[in-house]
Design goal:
The protein is α/β, with parallel strands linked by helices. It has a single domain, classed as Ribokinase (UDP-N-acetylmuramoyl-L-alanine:D-glutamate ligase, 3-Layer(aba) Sandwich). It is built from 9 helices and 10 strands.
């Protein structure tokens, strides 16, 4: 990466539709065969409309997707400087207007699990509280939101309501203030999350639960792109868990 007040050349760029919630919804519905509804806000721009079209193609209900007037859809710039080093620049745009009022009643009555993707601390709190109120399983991926926005204490308060916490290695270490993955996973589980799933790239993942942990290797596959790999993992995990409630098979 360039230093301050300097520049560098970019080798390749490309555009894609997605985002944490949209990716997990699409993978779970299209490949997992689940009935999935997406809740989000889009702007009045072309990109927002294209996302809705793509979600329909992946058999995702978009009844919970609404437009925010005078806003543009979320933009995420992912900057890669090496295989395992990346920076996300996120402009929330329309999603800043998202609230629990955008959640369709039929989603609540017909769902088993709420999967809450990276958003604002306010949105996380509203949707976790609503899910718990209605007896839903809570899957939560905070991303790195609480590194910069809100307070880690707010994040920790949510964990007592979370059934499945999805974080990667850097996130686990940062949120737990620990120096090893084993210590980090155990600490996050003690804070209240029933299961803590830490993804480790090509090393697989570790799952922490009350009284222990298990490590699982990754499958060897041909990589098309690392973008959204964590979302694909979460979708596969959630699909199996919703059907079986079995962590081992998930």
């Amino acid at each position: 990466m360039p230093k301050a007040n300097s520049e560098c050349f970019v080798r390749r760029t490309y555009n894609a539709h997605g985002g944490g919630a949209a990716n997990v919804a699409a993978y779970s519905a299209f490949y997992g065969g689940l009935k999935v509804g997406l809740v989000s806000k889009i702007g009045t721009d072309r990109e927002g409309g294209e996302l809705v079209t793509r979600m329909k193609e992946y058999h995702v209900s978009v009844k919970g997707v609404s437009k925010a007037e005078d806003s543009i859809s979320t933009r995420i710039a992912v900057i890669y400087s090496s295989e395992r080093s990346r920076i996300y620049l996120v402009y929330l745009g329309a999603v800043e207007n998202l609230s629990v009022k955008d959640l369709p009643a039929e989603y609540v009555s017909n769902s088993t699990l709420f999967y809450i993707a990276p958003a604002t601390p306010r949105v996380h709190k509203e949707y976790v509280e609503t899910g718990v109120k209605h007896g839903k399983l809570i899957g939560f991926n905070p991303g790195s939101v609480y590194f910069q926005e809100g307070d880690k204490g707010d994040f920790q308060q949510l964990l007592k309501f979370v059934d499945l916490l999805f974080v990667n290695e850097p996130e686990a270490l940062e949120y737990s203030n620990e120096e090893s993955i084993q210590a980090a996973g155990s600490a996050l589980q003690r804070l209240g999350a029933k299961y803590v799933i830490i993804t480790r790239g090509n090393l697989g993942c570790m799952v922490f639960f009350k009284g222990g942990s298990e490590s699982y290797p990754s499958y060897k596959v041909e990589r098309a792109s690392p973008v959204g790999a964590g979302d694909a993992f979460a979708a596969g995990f959630l699909t199996e868990f919703v059907r079986t409630r079995n962590i081992e098979s998930a």
